[in-house]
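Writing this down once: the sequence line spells out the residues, with the fold written below as integer tokens. I am pasting one below:
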Amino acid sequence: MEVTVIEVHGPSDLKKWVGFPNTLYRGDARYIPQIIRDELDFFSPAKNPSFKISKTKLLLARRGERLMGRVCGIIHSLETRKLGYKRGRFGWFESADDREVAGALIGNLEKWFSGEGCREITGPHGFSDLDPEGMLVEGFDAQPTISGSYNKPYYPALIEALGFQKEVDYIERRLEFPQEMPPLFQMIAKKVMPAAEAEGYRLVEGLTKKAVKEYTGQFWDVLEASFEHLYGVTPLTDDQKAFYEKKYFGFIDPRFLQLVVDGSDRLQGFFLGLPSLSRPFQRAGGRLFPFGFFHILRGFKRFDTVDFYFAGVHPQANTKRVFPVMTLGMWRALKDANVQYLETNRELETNTSVVNLWSRFAVLNQRHTRVFRKNLTMA
């Protein structure tokens, strides 16, 4: 039966698009369902301001009446301005083990991107670096985080068969938290902390959720300044910042947010972690009610793992002072919370400073995710 591709139009199509992964991964012990209500909001042009700065298509693939795959295509206007040329992005790709289905979905995007004058197609990634990014190519037996990548093992072969090649790889690790302070952190406490304090740097102590809000604007400034040069990072509008703030900041546990400020109380660096919600999200099954909300709330109280999300230092700050200080602060917070394991989430394999830091810990498992790239012929 022939594969047909349709573009999502209206709430009914969107529900099918959002719900497709839950059908595809049914019975998969590693799959983590996202909250359906949040996904519907995220992919609503009326609610997500990312649609205002991008040309976007959500596509579904069918064989007859049976859904077989989905994908999102993005042409990001701010990325075009940053790069100086148009790039087509694909993200949220899901497909049955069927090359014809994958080819129909990606081929539809390639034709659209070429017609729009795009030089290349890359993915998987979303509107920004805060969205899911990368396709899992190694480490399929490991439990992912709620923001990490997970997909069927046959996905990379589907993409490579369409002419895509590796662009960049990210590394995600599960680490054993050392119960005794490692020599590196002892050295930081003894030598780096006094030197940092002499230069006016300090950790913000006693953070509360209310206090975190006071640093929100500076948080975005440091994040954008420190991430701007990284692969795939796109500038954020004020509307996007407000949207992501509402989506994610309510989950912040102040214990695992380390902020370093200078003598004028200006934020110079941050390190953000969150109690692991992988199991609670699985138990919620994509729904907050009737019991999903309970599972997630309990996950904030009963956990042995903390997921790391972001660490950034302002380019004009002294990285050799700020980064060690916030790392030591995080170690102490984890120790006080009796944490046993750490999840690093995605980090570029070329980020040698972070890769070297984690090499000092016991690595329990490692996952590699990949962004692929393919040149396009402009129409």
Residues 196 and 284 are 44 Å apart (CA to CA). The radius of gyration is 21 Å. The first strand starts at residue 3 and ends at 7. The chain has 13 helices and 14 strands.
